[in-house]
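Record type: monomer structure entry
Structure origin: computed from sequence
Chain ID: A
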Amino acid sequence: MKLPLGKVPPETLKKKVFPFLGAQRDDIILGPSTGEDAAIVTDGCKLLAIHGDPISGAIERIGWIAMNIATNDIATRGVAPAWALSMIMLPMGTNDQILEKICRDMSEAAQILNVSIIGGHSEVTPGISHPLVTVFVIGVIQGNHYVSCRDVKAGAKIILTKSVGIEGTAILASDHKEDVGQKFGSEFIEKVDAYFDQLSVMNEALIAFRHGGVQAMHDPTEGGVANGLHEVADASNTGFIVSEQQIPISLETRQLCELFELNALKLISSGSLLIYVDEAQSQAIVNQLQRQHIDAAVIGDVIKDPEVRLIQRGTGLRDVLERPETDELWRVQTKELTTRI
């Protein structure tokens, strides 16, 4: 079977990847699973959260993006990231200024997140057309307390922070400045460039986790919020009903999705955080996030039946929320990535 662009589909992971995981060790607390963001292992005394993520669909600020996205997956466990390793693969003909910019951007992000870059690898690689950056992150789980998507229960409320498509919006405007600038002007470009500063979810994740009542957290990356909802449902064997009117979408994201004819709910949404919480704590968590100037809204409910995955439209009708086959960003980026470094 020919694979689609982007993330490997869940069923393919189960059949072609998960059967081949090496030795079965007793120090693995939580290993690979659909919908889970970071592995949990123990050294006998402490628990560690570990995760790695590649950035393959961006050109500008790829180092900044890579560090933020990888650390997000540690934060979704309720854990502060501590150490990172990076792998940088560059196409033939790349000059050392590009390598320096990638490393500088990674370091700047890491300093803000209080993360140390402790190692990695950099090389020029034949057969690729643009830089590929992978970051691996480790965090120490304090008091052995963390959250997992498999623990989501029916009756939980679903909170979404900020708005959908943050990363996708930033990448589209940055990598297509000429087209976007001609359509919306330079002020639009400057405004959307600030979306890169919203990519981390560490603050909201730790605020919510420390408040209490959080069952799970998940950052909706490839496939956007739509895919993120499905991934948590897969991990917890539950369903969901979300309200289209309650899902926040910024004006800039709407405008870019109209320009490129994309579905915002299926656009890569790093920077947003799905938080699954006990109903009794949902409004208190939203209020606490808003006091910290982090936009948040309750967008739906978890239900028992895993076959029911619905979005309620503004008309009152309910439709099945389709699982994206691939991220909307790839529809635009595929051609761009083959012509630029």
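Annotation 1: Residues 337-341 have pLDDT under 50 and may be disordered.
Annotation 2: DSSP finds eleven helices and 13 strands in the chain.
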